[in-house]
Design brief:
Radius of gyration: 19 Å
Low-confidence stretches: none
Order of helices and strands: HHHH
Number of helices: 4
Number of strands: 0
Length: 65
Amino acid sequence: MARILCEQPAIWTVPLAIILMVVVSKTYQRRNPADVRMKMLVLHAPETLGLKQEYIQEHATGSGH
């Protein structure tokens, strides 16, 4: 049995990783920065919207906080 688990680590590492991700996410949920939604938008919005450049300039001047 141990040999199978070592030869096929995805059998136990994938479920473990998912459980760990959920636990950490729930544990640190209240510690998210106030502007986390804007950060996620900047990361996932199309570049043609130009949000990344505005976000970089905003935080470079320190006016973002």
